[in-house]
Amino acid sequence: MGSKSDPMVYVFGAGPAGLAAAHAAFNLGSSVQVFEASAVPGGLSRSIEVLGGVADIGPHVIGSDYARVNEILSEVMGRRQESFQLNTTMLWKGHDFSYPPKPHEILTKLGIFKTLQIGVSMAVSRLKLRSISIENHQEQSRKQYGMVLSSECIEPYLERLWGVPSSEICADWKPGRFIRSSIMNWVRTALKSSGDVHVSHPTHGMGDFYIQFASKLEEVGCEIWYESKVQRLSHDHERVTAIEFVDDDGTEQVVIDPSAQVVSTLPLNLLMRLLDPEPPAELSCLLSKIKFRSTILGFVIADPDSAPKQHIRYINDPQFKISRITNFNRWTSGMGILDNSKHLLCCEMWVDPESCWEMDDDELVGIMIRDLDAMGISGACDSLSKILRVPNTHPIITNEARAAVNQVHEYLNSFSNLLLSGRAGAFEYADQDRVLDLSIQRTIEFLKG
Predict the structure, then answer these.
(1) What domains lie within the chain, and their CATH numbers?
(2) 43-58, pLDDT tens digit by residue?
């Protein structure tokens, strides 16, 4: 890491994007001050001790595609990390498939007729949609995978994730596995035995990485102010001029030097509401279109013999409310229930923010245990379960939202000393390792001008 000097960079949030921005800014010679509303770093990637074990707030990994992110992980964690092949499957039509399903799996589990039906549908769709301009994710998916596989598998699952029809989701919501695939690539996977991803993971959970990362930044001179919630941003229509925040000592204000820069990872709609003076009325009216999905996490204890063998099991079946199960005993030696007498599972339900708090914990636990029982996972009980509600976990990137975000971005980008970063801050869907890499790159480009 570099050495501390001017100019000053203020960062809102000590999650993945915020700490990555702080790291990049410091290495460019800036002084850095981070405002974090909670008592610990990590944001949505923190870890918790729960039910006698260790779990992450959902499955967050660092793959091998981002060299500088892996360099930071190695620098921060040293030997306190473990590498493994991440095993993920999707429960669909009563069977576990790769994600997305491979042709040989469809053949062996669903039969020759369904395989031919999907294959013919893919060929027809690619011919029919070859010259058509793709306007939404449904059209994108059907062009890549055909009407049958898309409408029966891919669209229903992503609609569970987003809570809206796939016809409303942007075609380029994420440069991910589904969108990158072509019919030939899909067929070639029949010859491959594994689609697992090689990952490195901190032994005691992803949250431990962010705690150590934040500590190293503080050791070299970065300031991280925990339990400091930004509540107002003053501006002169050209730059941010002052930051008002609340901490244990009450309300305080920092007047920003003309040479200082600000990096915000706050949710985009929240940031707009903090501006003083308020944004133009026509922009404020757009904020209702910028929405986030929330997640209900249910941590439960299960018998090892019936617990999922996978690290992550996606549930693509309308009879179940659970959409994803993570078995943290499959991850590292320092996660889950350490003696392996029981396994620690994290069950996820994706919901709209307004419904995230409606059901009480007992009702949610009951739903999840019934789902687990129906899947043949035994040992879960009310007394060994814990519910955690996590709001605003991922942006809902509809075409309507994208149009609104573009206008909001244009307005905020007019502030010469403000950079938007992160999944919530920039309103973009990206996995953790990509969030880290993008935040580093954008911070470097922003500060270098």
Answers:
(1) 8-48+202-288+397-448 (3.50.50.60), 99-193 (no CATH), 292-395 (3.90.660.20)
(2) 999 999 999 999 999 8
